[in-house]
């Protein structure tokens, strides 16, 4: 069930159009990521959905309530949601008082405040800092204080606006673990904005719910059947999600001297015949989809197998980008260990294999 449903959202600040034509649905119990470059409108959308500020136009329903019609219910609805911002807001007081603040404001009893503050601090692993001054803690710990201040109010939906953008990798991992646990164990619905693709796509989210690109609108929504990482809908999104290979289909790789050995299978192209080669480009992720072999594999099941020559080797820790020429240039991402073991050098002859389903087609655009 969708607990947040928005349609045709538009938000302007004076003459600046921050959001337009945004449709999004957040399902109960999911972790949904909004990804996009800085300035694309992610924070603005979170603030609109969290009822921090109104949309200029559009339909919005939260927990089944039409919030455009029912402005009088905003405060109640807002109390069922919580937002963690990029920069932790902590006050120069004890960790306990920082977390208790929201409950005191809601006039909870002393015993209840005590119990809930302890639970919220335990949830973020800060129990032993209860009496510390919040401003003395590290950035990552302050963000956990801010998170427990949100959790103490027991939100049904947690909004996270670039929550780890200012944190080191260890603190980032801690916050991510907490968020996943809240989702798994407490069934909390989570909506997170991030420009960190690994966070949005692989580490945290069940679903990348929107790619905000092109200033202020959702250029592509993802889901189990349309993964923005594997099936970006155009060149701009493919570039944003870090696809290594975008190749005009007309110059596709092929067996030496022979015709291309692509079988247009999988993804969108499975039901239709392949479009004319001059109208499409092929998107191929360089990761596990492209395999390099030192000898012609005897039992390779990939639909595409062709000889190639290594033309470039570039370290990109923890991987190595190996470019091979096989009718066109194809970049394969090989783990550093694998690259060492295989002794790839420029000029070496290799075999490249990839599944037909690793090839995704996008419309060809003028460069
Ligand atoms: P993101 O979160 O993707 O970095 P934002 O939602 O913060 O993007 O910003 C989207 C656009 O809206 C930017 O051009 C930003 O300058 C503008 N914007 C955001 N909030 C305001 C505001 N309160 N007043 C004026 N412009 C704003």
Task: Provide structural commentary.
This protein is globular. It is built from nine helices and 18 strands. It has two domains: 2-235, Rossmann fold, CATH 3.40.50; 243-363, OB fold (Dihydrolipoamide Acetyltransferase, E2P) (Beta Barrel). The chain starts with a strand and ends with a strand. The strands form four sheets. It has a six-stranded mixed beta sheet with strand order 6-7-8-3-9-10, sandwiched between helices. The model is unreliable at 255-272 (pLDDT under 50). By secondary structure, it is of the alpha+beta class. A hairpin with a 2-residue loop joins strand 1 and strand 2 (16-27). 24% of the residues lie in helices and 31% in strands. It binds adenosine-5'-diphosphate. Residues 13, 16, 18, 36, 38-44, 193, 212 line the site of adenosine-5'-diphosphate.
CATH topology descriptor of the largest domain: Rossmann fold
Bound molecules: adenosine-5'-diphosphate
From the alpha carbons, calculate the radius of gyration and give it in angstroms: 25 Å
Number of domains: 2
Major sheet: size, sense and barrel closure? Answer: 6 strands, mixed
Widest sheet: strand ordering:
6-7-8-3-9-10
Succession of helices and strands: EEEHEEHEHHHEHEHEEHEEEEEEHEE
On the 0 to 100 scale, the average pLDDT is: 87
Q: In CATH, what is the homologous superfamily of the largest domain?
A: P-loop containing nucleotide triphosphate hydrolases
| Beta-strand residue fraction | 25-35%
CATH architecture of the largest domain: 3-Layer(aba) Sandwich
Number of helices: 9
